[in-house]
Automatic annotation (TrEMBL):
Extracellular zinc metalloprotease. Residues 171-350 form the Peptidase M4 C-terminal domain. The chain holds residues 222 to 573 of 577 of the full protein. GO terms for biological process: proteolysis. It comes from Massilia psychrophila. The keyword Nuclease does not apply. It is found in: Secreted. Its EC number is 3.4.24.-. This is Neutral metalloproteinase. The keyword Hydrolase applies. One of its GO terms (molecular function) is metal ion binding.
Amino acid sequence: NALQTVVGTGKSQYNGSVPINTTLSGTTYSMKDGSRGVGGTFGAMAITNANHTTSAGAVYTNTSNTWGDGLQYVAGGSTTNANGQTAAVNAMWGLMNTYDMLKNTLGWRSLNGQNTATYIAAHVNTAYDNAYYSDTCKCMYIGDGGTSFNNLGSIDVIGHEMGHGVTAATSNLTYSGESGGLNESASDIQGEMVEAYARAGGTGNLIPATGNDWMMGKEIAKNGQPLRWLYKPSKDGASPNAWSSSLKQLDVHYSSGPNNRMFYFLAKGSSATASSDYYSAYLNRAPLAMTGIGSDKAFRIWFKALTTKFTSATNYADARLKMIASAQELYGVGSREAKAVQRAFAAINVGT
Ligand code: ASN
Ligand code: ZN
């Protein structure tokens, strides 16, 4: 038919001017990307306008292929963003980069690996300070932010929400207790890896070793404080840095902390200096510190375990065993990578 994927220009809120894929039909542009995903609700990856309700609404359209003005949405505001396009640009940019990171580095297509198109509904609810994935629609809802946050559409938060879709389609980790913490951590890890990929230019088939900040949602916070610190979870005042038998009683956004830290140590290593944010009191045998294997290998090991080995009931001890098995399959029994996994779990008080 007459649908044609074209490249437009979006003024995003957190990443400046960005190229976004749109679709031209007659003389109308719509925020649909027919090159990323097929089928699904809209036949292509898409951004809709929930228009301050809790239902998805219609796909964004425009008479030109230039979208948004980079400004925070203000209800009834006089800026061009009063039409809400900037929120849609944020969403499309995050979604494109999430899709590309998974596909280009891991060969994983969309949420389910089968390339079923997903979408994001922008402007959900009014002054809504959250974003979430729904497995009913296999889609994500992004709020404009209220008292605590600006628009929730930073790259790491979108990567996080899409991570819930990947987890739901694979291990389906139960969203409570230790498995719930691992579910949350899987999303935080994916969010950071998308951030690293996007900031390196969004091309290539490796996860860059640098580029992400190891903090979830720093860009969106009105007070400058991130939602979570992956490298030292306790900085939020509520998340523990290490596993304990009472971890399972915590909210999943706190019991995620130790696994986030495990992943940081695995990728980047730890320090032997007790005053460092990167120090683990549990690596109390020589050499006291550990050397990381880089984000690319760490994420390959993690993703293989999450999508092919974990079950809905996987806890921290089970995750350790399956991560070691994953590393052994990818890099060999006795490999530096497999030993690093063991060491990273030891650093959060899981195993030795
Ligand atoms: N933004 C939150 C999350 O994705 C929503 C929730 O509590 N599930 O974790
Ligand atoms: Zn989450």
